[in-house]
TrEMBL record:
This is L-threonine 3-dehydrogenase. The record marks D149 as: Important for catalytic activity for the proton relay mechanism but does not participate directly in the coordination of zinc atom. Its EC number is 1.1.1.103. Belongs to the zinc-containing alcohol dehydrogenase family. It is an enzyme of class 1 (oxidoreductase). The keyword Kinase does not apply. The lineage of its organism: Bacteria, Pseudomonadati, Pseudomonadota, Alphaproteobacteria, Hyphomicrobiales.
Length: 342
């Protein structure tokens, strides 16, 4: 089969025409992949940065954002059928930890990632544990199905705290920050301000949702607050850049007693002025992945009830043009990029 493979421990990805089709186990299904999304994680693997070097086994098929159709089910699988259109959770959990025994699958310390620690979805076929599969309602087509993984990050983060009537600050207008803006709007926030230093991303944010884009390289957040007639600060902060200055700015403008959900992954440890957290009595919550499967339920339900994130897809490419997709991602000149495997 055709697949994008990390074939060698060096920068790049290679399109193989002769990967073996995965052999499924009794609790797995085989999915014929139709559309995939390129994730920032895939770009780290493409560039072969220090994180990728210590994490990714080579050779391996990569990719974890996908939608497709079930073409084979394992002998123990009772709830899924050949022909179903599906996406799925990319975090594969064990059943041994205290958290998973208690049904809190997203807290499993033994979590492994499809396309990160085990063969992935940038391929004509991907093997997935049946437990991870999420059937797609008819109204959610394959390209939306292929970006449910990052939408799930956005939903998990945004819905961590009550947003109704609240003023929300999102730092980082990458695809996930932009989708979080749309979710906050859908959920009933009052002001939704989103920051970045990349004008392409800020323009896209304003096209996808009714948010206030702020280029923090040019404008001060306090001036924006004055313009919006906000007196005291933001109730909820969603950190979605991983950039240390963005988090420091967020601390400056949070309301006393405010809540911050942290999704962005910093490249290295950095110093924080803890006094601002202590004296403002802020609550900070780290976010990893999606809640299994409450986030999936909420995001499908919101898509069915009018949440529109399709404009975040800025590029639709054939598999053969994958290099163009990765280079565009690396330059940050895009929203989501979807590859077509059909
Ligand atoms: P992205 O890299 O596309 O977006 C980050 C954005 O932050 C970029 O547009 C960048 O220009 C912007 N930025 C840089 N400096 C800034 C500053 N000072 N102020 C405001 N914005 C600034 O990433 P993404 O795919 O949208 O993901 C968002 C973040 O979430 C990344 O850090 C990613 O690694 C992380 N992530 C975490 C999880 C998790 O499970 N915790 C899952 C997926 C992604
Ligand atoms: Zn992803």
């Amino acid at each position: 089969m055709k697949a994008l493979v990390k074939s060698r421990p060096e920068p790049g990805l290679w399109l193989s025409e002769s990967e073996p089709v995965p052999v499924i186990g009794e609790d797995d299904v085989l999915v014929k992949v139709r559309k995939t999304g390129i994730c920032g994680t895939d770009v780290h693997i493409y560039k072969w940065d220090p994180w990728a070097q210590k994490t990714i086994p080579v050779p391996m098929v990569v990719g974890h954002e996908y939608a497709g159709e079930i073409v084979e089910v394992g002998s123990h699988v009772r709830t899924l059928k050949v022909g179903q259109r599906v996406s799925g959770e990319g975090h594969v959990v064990g059943m041994r930890s205290r958290a998973t025994r208690a049904g809190k699958f997203h807290l499993d310390p033994e979590t492994r990632g499809i396309g990160v620690n085990m063969p992935g979805a940038f391929a004509e076929y991907v093997k997935v544990p049946a437990f991870n599969i999420v059937p797609l309602p008819d109204e959610i087509d394959d390209e939306l199905g292929a970006i449910l993984d990052p939408l799930g990050n956005a939903v998990h983060t945004a819905l961590s705290f009550d947003l109704v009537g609240e003023d929300v600050l999102i730092t980082g207008a990458g695809p996930i920050g932009i989708m979080a803006g749309a979710v906050a709007r859908h959920a009933g926030a009052r002001h939704v301000v989103i920051t970045d230093v990349n004008p392409v991303r800020l323009d896209l944010a304003a096209k996808v949702a009714s948010v206030t884009p702020v280029n923090v390289a040019e404008e001060d957040l306090r001036d924006v607050m004055a313009r919006l007639k906000m007196k005291e600060g933001f109730d909820v902060g969603l950190e979605m850049s991983g950039a240390p200055p963005a988090f420091q700015q967020m601390l400056d403008v949070m309301l006393m007693g405010g809540h911050i959900a942290m999704l962005g992954i910093p490249a290295a440890p950095y110093a924080v002025d803890w006094n601002r957290i202590v004296f403002k009595m802020l609550t900070i919550k780290g976010i990893y992945g999606r809640e299994m499967f409450e986030t999936w339920h909420k995001m499908l339900a919101m898509l069915q009830s009018g949440l529109d994130i399709r404009p975040v897809i800025t590029h639709r490419l054939k598999t053969a043009d994958f290099l163009q997709g990765f280079e565009t991602m690396a330059r940050g000149e895009c929203g989501k990029i979807v590859l077509d495997w059909s």
